[in-house]
Amino acid sequence: MPRYKVTLTEEERRMLEEITTRGKHSSQTVLNALILLGCDEGRFQEKKKTGQQLADVLPVSLKKVDRVKRRFVEDGLDVALEKRKPDRQYAKKADGDFEAHLAVPGPVDRHAGGDAARSPGLGPAEGHREIPHRLALHHRRRQDQAEATLPDT
User: Fold this and answer.
1) Torsions phi, psi of 79, nearest 5?
2) pTM flag (> 0.70)
3) Number of separate domains in the chain
């Protein structure tokens, strides 16, 4: 693995020290700032630490230290501080027609039980809510069991 040398200017060091001590920043941004401050080999650094020393002190792996150093050298300070954007491109699982099909409610289930089943003309638009299919079946079975246990008069 190539060795990346982090050299910070005085202004960059001041900005990183401010990130680690003040303000609201994500934990990863603060960790990345601490890594860059510890790895600095510039003239404003009093005591440089190795990647392994940083990995031992901070709750990060040596690989993360190397990745932050590489992103700083290749892409700059802002990119090294922020969370990396995913490189992977995801294929769309649903197209517009399928999404429209999901958004438009279907006909009222007559087997659903409740008011919607007794009044087929009433649907969700008139203030009645639809019962999900499995719940409706469960509800119907319980009604049938209750009716079967009642004595005939």
Assistant:
1) -70, -35
2) no
3) 2
